[in-house]
Amino acid sequence: IMADTVFCIEITDDVVTGVLVDKRAKATVVVGCAQASLNKIPLEDGVAQVCQEAGFKGGICHLALGAEFFSFRNLSFPFSDRKKIAQTLPFELENLSPLEADSLVADFLISEAGPEGAQIVAATIEKESLSAILSTLIKAGVDPDTIEVGGVRTALRLADALKEDCVLLDIRDTLAELIIVSGGGIVLIRSLQLDPAAREDGRQFEELGRLVRQTLLVSRIVDLENKDFTLCLIGDETEHAGLAPQLSAQLGVKVRNYQLSDQRMIKIDSSVVRAYRFRQMDLVLALALKLKARNRTYNFRRDEFKKRKSAPELRTILLRAGVPLALLI
Predict the structure, then answer these.
(1) Cα angle at 177 between 72 and 62, to 5 degrees?
(2) What element of type H or E holds 61?
(3) How far is CA 223 from CA 157, 230, 252, in A?
(4) Count of alpha carbons within 13 Å of 111, Cβ hemisphere only?
(5) Quick one: CA dihedral 48, 128, 7, 312, positive or negative?
(6) What letter would DSSP give residue 141?
(7) Structural contact between residues 268 and 282, judged by C-beta atoms closer than 8 angstroms
(8) What distance in Å separates the CA atoms of residue 285 and residue 315, rounded to the nearest whole number?
(9) What is the DSSP string of 256-310?
(10) What is the pTM of this model?
């Protein structure tokens, strides 16, 4: 097991992406990366292919699932205590979801809290779906330590770097994920379905701008009139040639391309730099990077899906804690 590496993997509806990171040095170094389309192969084969090409042989692993796997709800509570919210959330979801609460795994982020209560962004995934994904991963030799919502960690780092509210837009073939960060916290997550006909007619940028504008207006979170936020696209300018200026003109806000791997303490090893695709892989790389203490992200490796430590892992933890070797035999 490569104890000094972290493997980050993201699964969306049509692609598996993996990034292998070496954290021995002060810098975070990408030493392996791979991507597999799921259009013609099953998930298990896609994961196995990515693991092999990225060089993952076991160890710490973080998983992100695309926003399309989840349902998101913005809810208000008359209290801000996390334990109370966690206890009350299943009853709130029962009233809002057509599914039984015990068929879902839920987690939440507090977007705003004060004496009068809290605003949260709750995310749910069906247990059956999560169980199927985990079983497939474990068969392929991947047993993730955490399970997050794709893009969330990147959005939080973005807002922190920009020192202002931001809207992260991750554009794929058939959908775009939109995440709003305001006041340093996640306040909205939406998946926007893109019309295939708009791509065929050459109207994809115009259609995307319309969907983004509509979502922002309905959310009433960021102010399109005062333009007090930045719309961020992942990847370099060549990934979406012409999109940034068109969205800026259409929405009347600042639009910029953002590469996580441009940051000072992040390096791409020369052996993999050609294979590294900034737009897709930066989002996955973010899983290996720490957030500030005040920032929290989702983790669905909880309750019945909580990871159980193997005997070698428990042995290592106890040894580090100073438990005598004789007691472990």
Answers:
(1) 80
(2) strand 60-65
(3) 21, 11, 11
(4) 21
(5) negative
(6) T
(7) no
(8) 29
(9) EEE-GGGSTTEEE-TTTTTT--HHHHHHHHGGGSPPPTT--------GGGPPPPP
(10) 0.88
Secondary structure of the chain in HEC code, one letter for each residue: CCCCEEEEEEECCCEEEEEEEECCCCCEEEEEEEEEECCCCCHHHHHHHHHHHHCCCCCEEEEEECHHHCEEEEEEECCCCHHHHHHHHHHHHHHHCCCCHHHEEEEEEEEEEECCEEEEEEEEEEHHHHHHHHHHHHHCCCCCCEEEECCHHHHHHHHHHHCCCEEEEEECCCEEEEEEEECCEEEEEEEEECCHHHHHCCCHHHHHHHHHHHHHHHHCCCCCCCCCCEEEEECCCCCCCCHHHHHHHHHCCEEEEECHHHCCCEEECCCCCCCCCHHHHHHHHHHHCCCCCCCCCCCCCCHHHCCCCCHHHHHHHHHHCCCCHHHHC
Cβ neighbours around 5 below 10 Å, total: 22
Q: What is the pLDDT of residues 229-271, one digit of tens each?
A: 889 998 766 667 788 898 999 988 889 888 877 777 889 999 9
Choose among 1, 295, 311: nearest CA to 148: 295
Which tokens belong to 298? 């989702």
**Token pair in block for residue 266:** 């992040």
What pLDDT band is residue 191 in, cutting at 50, 70 and 90?
A: very high
Confidence of residue 219 (pLDDT cuts 50, 70, 90): confident
